[in-house]
Every structure is written in C-alpha cells, then in structure tokens.
Amino acid sequence: MDMNRFYQGDKLADLERVLASWLGTPHRHGCGVKSGGVDCTLFICRVLEETGFADKPYKLPAYSADWFRHSGEERLLDWMIGNVPHERIDKPEDGAIVLFTFGRMISHSAFYYQDHLYHSLNKRGVIRSAFKGCPWSRKDRVAYILRPVRAS
C-alpha cells in the first residue's frame, strides 16, 4: 500500500459508495447539494469532504457559468493545485481526479473509478460514464490527473 495515497483500502470503498450516492443529482452551476444540484467542481469538493479527505469544507471563489470562455487564466487548475494535496500522475487510476480541457483551457473535472468517470454534466447531472472510448478520454482533452494524497 502507498502510505500517501488517500483512496486505497477502506477509503476506496468509501469513495465508491459516496460517488454512487451522488448519481442523479441535477447539474446546477455554483451549487453543491446532493440531490439538489451540483456543478463539476463542487461535486469534486463535496466528495472529497464526504470521504474525509478534506478537513473542512472547501470554499471556491465566485465564478460565472461561462468563466472559461472569457479568460485565459487556468482558474480550475490553479484552484485544484493550490487546494487539493496531490501527486500528478500520467494515467488515471481509481480515486484520481481528472481535469479536462474543454475549449481553450481546463474547465471540467471528474473522479475516475473502475474505468468510469463520475462527473456532473450540464443537462445530465451527476452521471457515471465509461472512460475508454468516450470523447473525454481523448489525449487532447485529458489535461491533468491528480492523485489525492495525505502527508504521512
């Protein structure tokens, strides 16, 4: 077992349970309430909190629904790097957070588990979708993969 990797053993089982409990939650920009509504980034935050990775609730700066269309700043990447202790990895693994380029910058996030993505999509809400062969799996879309870690 990797001493720094957070999602392993019982924590990986917790992650699977928590991810499944969010399925069907509608997509709502700026919201992070199970069954009420959640966007892709707040989905990641709430799962990290619910599984015990985060010591306190994450607070995100305000952002418009189309922030990624009007800025050249890597806001999502910068926020994740600054707030989620992690190791960058090259290939998705169970419990990893995958960040995707959509348009000209990183603007979507998902949890990877057993060759599937768990993410909140506009008009679909939180879904589980196969990773292999889907448009999200294209090399030009996968921009950054984080393995959540805890300092030993």
What portion of residues belong to β-strands? 25-35%
- The tally of beta strands, per DSSP, is 8
CATH class descriptor name: Alpha Beta
CATH superfamily: endopeptidase domain like (from Nostoc punctiforme)
User: How many structural domains?
Assistant: 1
Helix-strand string: HEEHHEEEEEE
> Which spans of ≥5 residues are poorly predicted at pLDDT below 50?
none
Described by strand count, sense and barrel closure, the largest sheet is: 6 strands, antiparallel
Overall 3D shape: globular
Helix content: 10-25%
End-to-end separation in angstroms reads 13 Å
Count of DSSP-assigned helices: 3
pLDDT average, as an integer? 88
Structural class: alpha+beta
Spatial strand order of the main sheet: 3-8-4-5-6-7
- CATH topology, by name, is endopeptidase fold (from Nostoc punctiforme)
Corresponding CATH architecture: Alpha-Beta Complex
* Rg value: 14 Å
Describe the protein:
The chain is α+β, with helices and mostly antiparallel strands and 152 residues long. It has one domain: endopeptidase domain like (from Nostoc punctiforme) (endopeptidase fold (from Nostoc punctiforme)), CATH 3.90.1720. It is built from 3 helices and 8 strands. It has helices at residues 10-22, 40-50, 75-83; strands at residues 32-33, 37-38, 86-88, 97-102, 105-113, 116-121, 125-130, 142-148. It has a 6-stranded antiparallel β-sheet. Strands 1-2 form a two-stranded antiparallel ribbon. A hairpin with a 3-residue loop joins β1 (32-33) and β2. It is globular. The two termini are 13 Å apart. The model has no long low-confidence stretch (mean pLDDT 88).
